[in-house]
Specification:
- With 197 residues, the protein is of the alpha/beta class.
- It is built from nine helices and five strands.
- It has a four-stranded parallel β-sheet, with helices on both faces.
- The radius of gyration is 17 Å and the shape is globular.
């Protein structure tokens, strides 16, 4: 996502700020956002609001500001998919959330995970696939810069490169945390669990 100034949205009835982190639908998987829609609708029926980029951000707002706020959310629903773990924006949200929770020691209390479309995160090989994806992106960028000055990236490009290096180093730890949690096997069970008072 990009840079955006945020209009404060309505907060959940609990007084907590809830967010959803997900990869947008595309032509290949138009159904990807259906679960996000269903989650937000079910929460709204209970008088709770889940802040979602598409409903909160307006033209000219800073996307990165929104992602940082999401990383500090009281509760964040992560809709995990392959596209999510390959998206710089989604990974930034997840990384910010993980960093904040590592500091506060409350990852399991603040993060609710739904794994989309049978996506696999249970084995170390699954985790390594994601780490290698980001490492390969870092190596490609470093190779492009190798015969030039690092200034060719500018400050924004250098920050992005550093973030991708962080993703490659920590995605295994994040996915291992997720894999170590008992998860509901059906959408209805998960929804009941995550929205219970």
């Amino acid at each position: 996502m990009g840079e955006v100034a945020l209009q404060p949205g309505p907060e959940p009835a609990t007084g907590e700020t809830w967010y959803v982190s997900y990869a947008w639908a595309d032509e290949d998987t138009p159904e990807r956002e259906q679960d996000v829609d269903r989650l937000c609708k079910a929460a709204k029926a209970q008088g709770r609001t889940i802040l979602r980029d598409k409903n909160v951000l307006r033209p000219g707002d800073s996307i990165s500001d929104f992602m940082r706020r999401l990383g500090k959310g009281d509760r964040v629903f992560v809709m995990l998919s392959d596209k999510y773990l390959k998206s710089p924006n989604c990974m930034f949200e997840l990384f910010m959330l993980w960093q904040n929770c590592q500091r506060d020691g409350d990852f399991n209390d603040r993060v609710e995970l739904w794994v989309l479309n049978g996506f696999k995160i249970g084995q170390v090989e699954d985790w390594m696939d994601r780490a290698e994806y980001w490492l390969e992106r870092v190596e490609k960028l470093n190779a492009r810069v190798q015969n030039r000055s690092a200034t060719v990236l500018g400050e924004a490009g250098q920050r992005q490169l550093m973030l991708m290096e962080q993703f490659s180093r920590h995605v295994v730890d994040i996915l291992a945390l997720f894999a170590d949690r008992v998860r509901e096997t059906t959408w209805d069970e998960w929804l009941k669990h995550v929205l219970q008072p």
